[in-house]
């Protein structure tokens, strides 16, 4: 075994062993990187250097701002207003509250960009409401956790910023625009699944649709929705960079939460900022160690070897795309989203582009795959949050989620094989 192969085995082998032993992901990535550097005869001084280099990026500064914006808006009294807006749109349908849950997640995702925040915020309101109206508790939880993944696709999503950084030179504005239609497709797929189950189980309808009520609720929600317009119009229109628009959105979110909706006082603002720091510390340390891990992969030519291995299985683009999805789904079951994006992108993107996938389309595929991973054991962060909010056993929630997994896989396959779902809006707006 040559030195390069030995170092590769040490890097990947130690990482997988620590994952199976349930090490915290940051420790698993960092320790395996350190062991690899030692095996290559390099000084451990290079590890902090690689970590600092990984977060030394202007575009990554948008990540803390987007997370802060999401926390401020999520705790600033907008959840009720977005639920009311969604109810005015789709509450009249059979299983109306399930449809409201899904549509509200689409709106809320455009503000928080976080599946976990969506589940915790909307779930704490909608799950008890659905149970009181006669919906099964496990079904209500399944709808909540699966629809929360819309927030990963609907901009502004900080995971898209991380992906753009991992690719290098990819337009954040184009990625933002690319997320709207896939997010809507996912919502429609979940709504169809919910409707079928609602008819089968005779779940109730809501009030009849009223234009007057819709306009009224839109007026109440417009302040929250304007935060998204600031980011999208600013970035796509070239008025701001992603980082600048995110900073402006934070100031706007603070103003709306404190002075318009009055859902938070200044004491609440400080508590929200403390929560942001906790989240950011986790995200940034993951980005730092994952960047060092990725540097080792590049030095060991792992991306080239992986590309040769995957394309060696088949040269049929359909088979290769299915393999890419399978790999990302498995990774999503055992790792958090940020490390997957940073580690897997340099390995799998060359394979994806070799079979005709655009980097933007592959990015949407990757993020949705990771989103499905958030709903599956053993990592399943959003699954655990949903179970905790609903106070339901995780095993029963997983069973209730099975039909929705099929809906999500169906949406994923359409995104994988129909490029225009991801590329039409970026091409239309000229942001590519």
The percent range for strand residues is under 5%
Give the number of helices: 21
The dominant shape is globular
Query: Could you estimate the helical fraction of the residues in percent?
Result: over 70%
Give the domain tally. Answer: 2
The overall average pLDDT, rounded, is 85
The largest sheet is: none
Radius of gyration using CA atoms only: 22 Å
Low-confidence stretches: none
Report the strand count.
Answer: 0
Distance between the termini: 45 Å
**What's the helix-strand series?**
HHHHHHHHHHHHHHHHHHHHH
Summing up helix and strand content along with how strands pair, one would put the structural category as mainly alpha
Commentary on this structure:
The protein is mainly α and 432 residues long. It has 2 domains: 1-44; 54-429, no CATH class. 80% of the residues lie in helices and 0% in strands. The protein contains 21 helices and no strands. Helix 3 (46-55) crosses helix 14 (266-299), helix 6 runs antiparallel to helix 7 (115-132) and helix 14 (266-299) packs across helix 17. The longest helix has 34 residues, at 266-299. The radius of gyration is 22 Å and the shape is globular. The termini are far apart.
Which key terms come to mind for this protein?
432 residues; mainly alpha; 2 domains; 80% helix; 0% strand; globular
Offer a quick outline of the entry:
This protein has 432 residues and is an all-alpha fold.
């Amino acid at each position: 075994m040559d030195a390069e192969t030995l170092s590769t085995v040490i890097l990947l082998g130690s990482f997988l062993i620590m994952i199976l032993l349930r090490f915290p992901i940051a420790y698993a990535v960092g320790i395996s990187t350190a062991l690899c550097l030692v095996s290559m005869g390099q000084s451990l001084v290079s590890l902090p250097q690689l970590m600092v280099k990984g977060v030394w990026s202007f575009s990554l500064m948008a990540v803390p701002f987007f997370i802060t914006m999401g926390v401020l808006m999520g705790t600033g009294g907008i959840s009720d207003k977005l639920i009311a807006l969604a109810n005015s749109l789709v509450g009249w349908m059979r299983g109306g509250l399930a449809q409201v849950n899904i549509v509200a997640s689409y709106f809320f995702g455009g503000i928080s960009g976080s599946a976990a925040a969506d589940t915790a915020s909307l779930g704490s309101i909608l799950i008890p409401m659905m149970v009181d109206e006669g919906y099964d508790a496990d079904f209500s939880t399944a709808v909540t956790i699966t629809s929360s993944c819309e927030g990963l696709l609907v901009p502004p999503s900080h995971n898209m910023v991380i992906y753009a950084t991992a690719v290098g030179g990819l337009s954040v504005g184009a990625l933002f625009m690319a997320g709207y239609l896939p997010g809507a497709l996912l919502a429609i797929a979940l709504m169809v699944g919910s409707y079928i189950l609602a008819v089968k189980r005779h779940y109730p309808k809501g009030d009849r649709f009223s234009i007057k009520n819709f306009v009224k609720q839109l007026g109440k929600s417009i302040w929250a929705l304007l935060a998204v317009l600031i980011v999208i119009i600013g970035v796509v229109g070239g008025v701001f960079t992603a980082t600048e628009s995110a900073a402006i959105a934070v100031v706007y979110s603070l103003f709306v939460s404190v002075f318009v909706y009055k859902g938070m006082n200044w004491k609440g603002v400080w508590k929200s900022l403390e929560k942001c720091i906790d989240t950011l510390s986790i995200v940034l340390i993951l980005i730092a160690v994952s960047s060092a891990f990725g540097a080792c992969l590049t030095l060991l030519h792992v991306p080239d070897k992986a590309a040769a291995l995957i394309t060696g299985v088949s040269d049929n683009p359909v088979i290769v795309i299915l393999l890419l999805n399978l790999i990302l789904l498995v990774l999503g079951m055992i790792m958090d989203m940020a490390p997957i994006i940073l580690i897997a992108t340099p390995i799998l993107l060359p394979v994806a582009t070799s079979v005709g996938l655009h980097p933007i389309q592959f990015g949407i595929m990757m993020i949705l795959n990771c989103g499905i991973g958030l709903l599956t054991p053993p990592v399943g962060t959003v699954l655990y949050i949903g179970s905790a909010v609903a106070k339901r056993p995780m095993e029963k929630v997983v069973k209730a989620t099975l039909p929705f997994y099929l809906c999500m896989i169906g949406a994923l396959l359409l995104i994988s094989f129909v490029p225009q779902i991801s590329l039409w809006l970026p091409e239309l707006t000229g942001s590519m």
